[in-house]
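Holo prediction — zinc ion.
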Amino acid sequence: MQPILGIESSCDETAAAVLDGEGRILAEAVLSQEREHAPYGGVVPEIAARAHLAHLPGLVREVLTRAGLGFGELGGVAATGGPGLIGGLIVGSLFGKGIALAHGLPYVAVNHLEAHALTARLPGLVEGGAPFPYLLLLLSGGHCQCVEVAGVGRYSRLGSTLDDAVGEAFDKVGKLLGLGWPGGPALERLAARGDPAGFAFPRPMLGRPGCDFSFSGMKTAVAQEVARHGSGVLPAALVADLAAGFQRAVVEVMADRAGHAMAMAPRARLLVVAGGVAANSAIRTALAEAATVWGLPLVAPPIRLCTDNAVMVAWAGIERLRLGLSDGLDFAPRPRWPLEELAGGGA
Ligand code: KG4
Ligand code: ZN
């Protein structure tokens, strides 16, 4: 297969990548819009859409130049078609379709969650390629779910969050502690200086059957603790203890939920973690330990492939094209697009 161009624009990262037919990365680029959204404490959809429109054409030209390729040498275009913010999805999808139409290339509308789910199969991450079936924990700012991956397009959701996504909980608690947005990375750094036993925050769902998650109770407990200290600036040591206590609660719940998920998917051969929260080393360590109990290796792709990127989109495109799956140019971007609604090939 000739090289594939991947485009990602579903949230606040504009990204483009070119992979060769085997999935080796020829060039990749990610432009984070973090600075544009930070003053608003979260992603503003209209700002995101305009930023994708402003940056995507330059980014695609840049990756093609670095890969030393022209549009005519591509074997296909894969662009995120959902789920995500509709403005960005329209920008990326139309751009991808335009290239496909102009150069007579196959077009793949990639499901963003499938792209995260298949990242572990990129060449070089697991010797010989990650084998199906495996268990995926998708932990990001927008998603928190546990999925059995049986093949391309073959997913069963074993559990998901009942309220906030785990990254969203980190961001909300980060905001309560005055850490700016996104709160996850700053909160992890702060937690390293605090006492995780200083506060006994609730551990929602711990020990419950299944592997659903819930984080809003933890967040409320932190808010109540912050409120108890009045309106002044919180002492630094207290903020560190709150961060450490919150992170410990998340870690314990995460390990417990992963254990339940592995019990529910006895055929799984790997535990894979993806999404921005996979950057958290306390969570990675706890998941690795939980996986060991079940005799499974934990696969955590490098952080830059865990957070939103276009390499995973191009790779999902390659997996689909290999199975003869592509999409028509009449594909309409889907803000909501559950994994279970995907059609696929086979294991
Ligand atoms: O996957 P991602 O880049 O974007 C989407 O949400 O789709 O994930 C971003 C999320 C944010 O909520 C951020 O706070 C969280 O991942 N995050 C972390 C860490 N790094 C990023 N959460 C906890 N600890 C971290 N080190
Ligand atoms: Zn994502």
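READOUT: Residues 251 and 283 are 5 Å apart (CA to CA).
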